[in-house]
Amino acid sequence: MTVRLSRREAVAALAATVAAPAFAADPDIDWAALATDVKAEMAWAWGQYRERAWGKDDFLPVSGGAKSFPLKDHHLGLSLIEAMDTLWVMGLDAEFADALDWVKTSLDFDVDGDVSVFETNIRLVGGLLSAHHASGDPVVLAKARDLADRLLPAFKTPTGMPYRFVNLKTGAVRDPATNPAETGTIIAEFGTLSKLTGDRRYYRAAKRAMEAMYRRRSKIGLLADKIDATTGQWLSRRATVGPPSDSFYEYCWDGWDLLRDRGCKAMYETLTRAILRYQPATIGDRLWFVDVDFETGARLSTEQDELASFYGGLLAQGGAHEQGAAYMRAWASVQDRYGILPEGYDPATGQPTVLTNALRPELADAAFTLWLIDRGAEWRMIGRQHFLNMKRWNRAKYGYTDLADVVTKKQADHCPGYWWSEQMKYYYLLFSDTPRFDYKNNYLSTEGNVLRGFRRGL
Fold it and tell me: What is the spatial distance between Cα 85 and Cα 420, in angstroms, rounded to a whole number?
């Protein structure tokens, strides 16, 4: 398995070896106009949030209300923080400045409440770091460091793998029954924080947790999806590329790409080699990755989780371009059928297993990643369709909402914080060719936060 030296650079020679269907972009598509439309929708939705839920976490765009996350009853400005680098890269500078002022004057993490270490890291620590990357403001970096300090007590386990929850004020921890994603999706943010502050505690904690998980792989090289962080004992047998394992593999690669950590690259290569040996399955004429027993490789289920649709992009980043492209096409065929991907889908039956969709960005993420690698017309077209479908069915009175049913297209009433950080950014970068972004040397986190690649002063 070959490994590329940069996560998202074009690799034309590699792409040329991939057997792909003939596919051409419509020459009449005005990509600049499409990017302008994405920007206009972002500005409109932001205006609604600014008027009705300023400083709140998740917006409710049907009713105009809000709900808190990751705390149960206290808001931390989640959507605002997640939106900031998207606003910046789109050139919505007045809106970015407004959000920056809120962060500097109103954001306070000294709250007596439990948060998910995983969610808080990728969304809030990562969001603040990307806002710092965009602005260079030292106050924003200080806020990110304060929050990371409040997460560090969770890593004080015998194994180094963190508890799932920590109290922001007291440092009290709970729930050692964790998983690969929540254990290992830390190093991009903590590693960046260590580089910016010179304090290696953050990087060391994240790397120790990853290595502890990796060392417990089975003899055939697979990870199960539930483990006790205090004892290191497995609590399940299922190996999956979907949740709750998905972003562990992503951050093994990212530790190499962003931080040039060769140990992370070696972990990615070993784990991916095992996945490519035991988990691919051709169902119909499509490539899928099925769940298997982590010690034997025996198939457990063909059901797919929508969150796994990012994985085609990751495979291509790591050098397995042919398999990544094939998996992407499998998910794109589901988009062609339903318009909006169901949360769960079983290719063996051809039917959804979960009819909802939580306004997910993963297919757009993979489309953007593959397009950066080979500039293939089909990836841009898939991203375009993802945007147009979202605009048709997810647009509500005050913003964009998730769906209660992808078949009937019945809307729910929730815009998750990641919507502001992820798909709106992927669409814009995919369509705009903005000079504020370095398309050859960049890094986007699992939450879509840009930690490398912004061109300031433009």
Answer: 9
- Burial class for 260, CB neighbours closer than 10 Å (0-12, 13-18, 19+): exposed
Closest CA to 376 of 94, 3, 22: 22
**Within 13 Å and on the Cβ side, how many CA atoms surround 120?**
28
Q: Give strand pairing partners of 66.
A: 59
Q: Cα(401)–Cα(245) distance, rounded to whole angstroms?
A: 26
Asked if residues 396 and 62 have their Cβ atoms less than 8 Å apart, the reply is yes
Phi-psi category of residue 409: left, alpha or beta, with phi > 0 → left and psi -120 to 50 → alpha: left
pTM exceeds 0.85, yes or no: yes
Show the DSSP H helices in 217-343 as ranges. Answer: 246-259, 262-278, 311-317, 321-338
Please report how many Cα atoms fall inside a 13 Å half-sphere around the Cα of residue 179, on the Cβ side. Answer: 19
Report how far residue 251's alpha carbon sits from residue 453's, in angstroms, rounded to the nearest whole number. 18
Residue 307 is classified by DSSP as G
**How many angstroms from the chain centroid is the CA of residue 170?**
29
Residues, the chain: 458
Q: Rounded distance, CA 78 to CA 168, Å?
A: 15
Q: What six digits make up the tokens of 194?
A: 């260590």
Q: How far apart, in Å, do the first and last CA atoms of the chain sit?
A: 39
For residue 423, the 8-state DSSP code is H
**Dihedrals φ, ψ of 272, to 5°?**
-70, -35
Of 70, 176, 192, which Cα lies nearest the Cα of 119?
70
User: pLDDT per position in the chain (458 positions), as tens?
Assistant: 433 333 333 333 233 333 344 445 567 899 999 999 999 999 999 999 999 999 999 999 999 999 999 999 999 999 999 999 999 999 999 999 999 999 999 999 999 999 999 999 999 999 999 999 999 999 999 999 999 999 999 999 999 999 999 999 999 999 999 999 999 999 999 999 999 999 999 999 999 999 999 999 999 999 999 999 999 999 999 999 999 999 999 999 999 999 999 999 999 999 999 999 999 999 999 999 999 999 999 999 999 999 999 999 999 999 999 999 999 999 999 999 999 999 999 999 999 999 999 999 999 999 999 999 999 999 999 999 999 999 999 999 999 999 999 999 999 999 999 999 999 999 999 999 999 999 999 999 999 999 999 998 87
Beta bridge partners of 167: 114
Looking only at the bridges linking them, the beta strands covering 286-289 and 443-444 are unpaired
